[in-house]
Amino acid sequence: MTSPAFDRIALPLRTERLIVRASTSADSDAVWRYRRLDEVHQWLTTAPADAEGFRAHFADPERLALTLLVELPGVGVIGDIMLRVEDAWSQAEVRPQAEGVQAELGWAMDPAQQGRGYATEAVRAVMAACFTELGLRRVSAGCFAANEPSWRMMERLGMRREEHSRRTALHRSGEWMDGMNYGLLAEEWRSLTD
Known about the structure:
This protein has 8 helices and 8 strands. It has about 190 residues and is an alpha+beta fold. The chain has one domain: Gcn5-related N-acetyltransferase (GNAT) (Aminopeptidase). Helix 6 links the parallel strand 5 (about 100-110) and strand 6 (about 140-145). It is globular, with a radius of gyration of 16 Å.
């Protein structure tokens, strides 16, 4: 099962160095290889404890319908990107115009491949597809404030910090942590790419 959004994007996306494609259940072991690492799973919303649990989680058709994989030719899967098309909040009378007009993005990358700009390159390609092929009006992303590499990347992508919330997110460690939320409107994206 693929996402209706993925059906409207000319996948795979190709960048200068990467391929971004839809995931399949057969990709679970490649993704588990880096998602199991402490420096990755500490920031993830869901982090199954073992490969079997991760396979079951990853193979869920709803999860597959949201997950794009980042491949580096000659190396294989080096990351994944969640693309969730959503409705905007609206008043009841205009609800139909707010359906499916924005997306939330999330990502995880293999630490062995970090620091080379691959995540920025891949997410930029997905954002471009959101604003062009999907015709969305807004893209957003969020993270724990302590995950500085993630919010710094959002800033490199031209996203605007919309919120720094204080101790609003409960981490699996039991600590209440700050959150960071960023957004980018289609017209802002166009001004960045002109």
